[in-house]
Amino acid sequence: MINVIVAGKQPALQYLDMDAAIRHCAAGIGIWQWAATTRAGNRDVVMACAGDVPTLETLAAVQLLRRLAPEIKVRVGQTGGPD
Predict the structure, then answer these.
(1) Alpha-carbon distance 59 to 75, whole Å?
(2) Could you give the 3-state DSSP secondary structure of residue 35?
(3) What is the pTM of this model?
(4) Which residue blocks in 1-83 are alpha helix, DSSP H?
(5) Pairing of strands 29-31, 74-79
(6) Mean pLDDT over residues 16-24, rounded?
(7) pLDDT of the residue at 48
(8) Is 50 helix (H, G, I), strand (E, B) or coil?
């Protein structure tokens, strides 16, 4: 077994609670339904990211899409492990 602890000196956003983070890391990659624009049907755009800054930028892009083009169906995927 290998344990990895990734820590930074700066405050960081927490996107998942501990239980959700454990499930997400165990899966290796996942879909963040809470960040998607719709839960059903095909998506027009899939946004994917890995790491703290790319995740922040991806969620900012999704927010812009929601505001500027609300008809676009977006899915957000994120890797579940240390970047």
Answers:
(1) 11
(2) helix
(3) 0.67
(4) 18-27, 52-68
(5) antiparallel
(6) 84
(7) 83
(8) coil
